[in-house]
Specification:
Elements (H helix, E strand, L loop, with lengths): L23 E5 L5 E15 L1 H4 L5 H13 L3 E7 L19 H10 L12 E4 L40 H8 L13 E6 L3 E2 L5 E2 L26 H4 L9 E7 L5 E7 L12 H16 L21 E7 L13 H6 L33 E5 L4 E7 L20 E8 L3
Parallel strand pairs: 2-3, 9-10
Antiparallel strand pairs: 1-2, 2-13, 3-5, 4-5, 6-8, 7-8, 8-9, 10-11, 12-13
Length: 418
């Protein structure tokens, strides 16, 4: 895990730049159509665990929450927050309902002001199962062992950044459907302003979507024989999504509905010459380009077929683990696939107003890549966007920036229904 860097110049008046924007009432632009402005964000929290969100005094999580309270999004995707299910590590024995960690983070941290100049925030939460840390029962990394048991996870530190998993945990994760040192690690949660409504009955998830269902998929091949990396038995079960892909429709007070398309593809790294992760990253990103276009092959976890409706508003958001200009991504899935999809608007490029040595203004991570995105559909008006690198106030957290990613936000205007 790359070492975090500290901003070079002193702390600024935190919150001044963005705190004014909470929920902008109907506005009109050049096309004269009335609309509602919302702020949408994505933030990789860096390995937040089930036991962490149950500790309201956790210093790093309070610092993460302070940053979110300064950005004040109406919708935010949290990545690398564990999915909790009965029996998973850190989940109390008394818990019977799965997928509560996003709600607990909102209630225990965001609903409490994390600095004297901040206001609490109220959110609805959505979580769904993740492929991370789910044993496949196959030797997917071809190291000669099928690893289905994980070592007991060590608690993450409360006053420093989480570290690298153990070699035993990595061996387990490499044979899981999606990399995780234990079931549910590195999952996702979507938080939605309490004044908005998640249309739960219309949510679509694609956790189980088979990779080989995608026409022309870049499935890995053995570089020595050119045979399929996966056996015939494995290919019937191997999943495209390393975590999951979600389509979460959210209704605004105006009646307009926006589909938030959430994902966190695997990093295009940590593999061998077969490029298992790099190819998967490409196709996980391509999935959204197909979903908002002509992806008739797509079927969701409830066996409902077809892509997104042609007239739907949407926002693609998450840590996509690929940079259109640098890095190790396979065949540039951002620039060549996602940004060229006909219904996608890639023109608003977020930048940071905080300079950090060694980083470009557009880098969203401390390892020098643009990997986190809020990408609207062309039917939404992109007003402005940014990358938040301002450190927390220091009264809670005195360490480096509390994640190895910086949150990305965008202000979008959603037309009112006609």
């Amino acid at each position: 895990m790359p070492e975090a860097r500290r901003p070079m110049f002193c702390r600024v008046l935190l919150g001044l730049a963005l705190a004014l924007f909470a929920f902008v009432a109907p506005a009109a632009r050049a096309d004269d159509r009335p609309g509602t402005a919302i702020r949408v964000a994505t933030f990789n929290l860096l390995d937040v665990r089930s036991e962490d969100v149950r500790n309201p005094d956790h210093p790093r999580l309070r610092a993460l929450a302070e940053i979110i309270q300064r950005i004040r999004p109406n919708v935010i995707l949290l990545t690398e927050i564990a999915y909790d299910a009965p029996g998973y590590p850190g989940v109390p024995a008394s818990q019977t309902e799965a997928g509560q960690n996003a709600r607990l983070f909102a209630e225990n941290f965001l609903a409490r002001a994390q600095a004297p100049d901040l206001e609490p925030m109220r959110f609805r939460a959505f979580m769904a199962p993740s492929n991370t840390g789910i044993p496949s029962g196959f030797d997917l990394d071809r190291d000669g062992q099928i690893v289905t048991d994980y070592p007991e996870p060590k608690p993450t530190p409360v006053r420093e950044l989480p570290g690298r998993p153990s070699d035993e945990a990595i061996a387990f994760g490499n044979d899981a459907w999606g990399f995780g040192a234990f079931p549910g690690q590195y999952a996702m949660g979507l938080l939605v302003d309490a004044r908005l409504t998640i249309e739960t009955d219309r949510v679509r998830t694609f956790q189980l979507f088979p990779w080989d269902y995608m026409p022309g998929a870049f499935l890995p091949r053995n570089p020595e024989t050119d045979d399929s990396w996966f056996s015939e038995e494995e290919i019937a079960f191997v999943r495209l999504s390393s975590k999951s892909h979600w389509d979460v429709p959210v209704r605004l007070p105006s009646g307009a509905v926006v589909h938030f398309l959430c994902a966190h593809p695997t990093p295009p790294a940590f593999d061998g010459p077969e490029m298992r992760n790099r190819r998967r990253n490409h196709d996980e990103i391509r999935f959204w380009a197909d979903y908002v276009s002509s992806g008739s092959y797509i079927v969701d976890d409830k066996n409902r077929p077809g892509p997104l409706d042609d007239n739907a508003h949407f926002v693609i958001l998450g840590d996509l683990n690929a940079d259109p200009n640098k890095g190790s991504s396979y065949r540039d899935p951002i620039g060549r696939v996602l940004f060229t999809a006909p219904r996608v608007n890639p023109r608003l490029t977020p930048e940071s107003d905080v300079e950090i040595e060694g980083l470009d203004a557009t880098d969203t991570s401390d390892f020098g890549l643009r990997v986190d995105y809020v990408i609207p559909s062309r039917c939404l008006v992109a007003l402005r966007a940014g990358i938040w690198r301002h450190p927390p106030s220091g009264s809670i957290w005195s360490g480096p920036f509390p994640s190895d990613h910086f949150p990305v936000w965008a202000d979008l205007r959603v037309p009112h229904p006609e």
